[in-house]
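Quick one:
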Amino acid sequence: MTPVSDPHLRHERAMGRAGASLVIGVDEVGRGALAGPVAVGMCVINPARPGKFPVGLRDSKLLSEAKREQLAPLASAWAWASAVGLASADEVDRHGIIACLGLAGARALSQLQAVGIELNDAVLLLDGNHNYLSAHIHDEVQVTTRIKADRDCASVAAASVVAKVHRDRLMIGLDSEHPGYAWASNKGYGSAAHFEGLELLGPTDHHRRTWLKSERMLVPLDSDASVDEARDSEGTALDARIDGVSAANVLA
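Output:
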């Protein structure tokens, strides 16, 4: 088993020495969920004067829910600015998950620009080995990918925590509106309780219908509509709602 190591700022500092005025750590959450949006978080730091990141900061997947809740405001306060962009379940169905990662990332970047973050000479430090951002960003912003950046790079770890807490809170709120799927605990992922809810109740407009394999899951039990009709009936109301929710997470 690979030992868990604390994140550091060595890569961000190296980017600063290479000419980056800002480093924007980027990470996504919700990629594999059956319900809810996919989220991309961003945290901005000055690599020349990054300050001390919060004690205990790590990749969100390595932290308990209580620890993430504790660290999220500290991570946002440490960063010059943070943002979370979202792409809805309907958008995932229409465009695919990779395109929606780019869409959510572009929305997060637009939020940062709206609060005055200048992208000249900035570098986006993206967790993973696939650059899903550049195709969706109009400005010529450098994107650097790094495997395990969410584990090793403090700016990316901070982005992962901020994004995870933001999306989790959204799913907890949706659980109260749509009881029966256990979203407060599974956050939209495919738990036994979630599958049981789908079998009993059918999908909501927050489900990624193209990801559901059973026709019984796709059509509510009291509906006479076909699976195709159920898929075609998805509206765009959630897109507007999610845009509003994501904008509220920008912290200067």
